[in-house]
Amino acid sequence: MAAQQEFLSDAWFDQLEQLIEQHGELQLPSKIAALCINFEVDEPDAPKKFALKGGLFYRTPVSDATTTVCVDDASALKMALIDQDPSDLIERFMTGRVRVQGDITQLMAAQSFKPTAQHKALLEQVKAITLP
Question: What domain range includes position 79?
Answer without folding.
Answer: 28-119
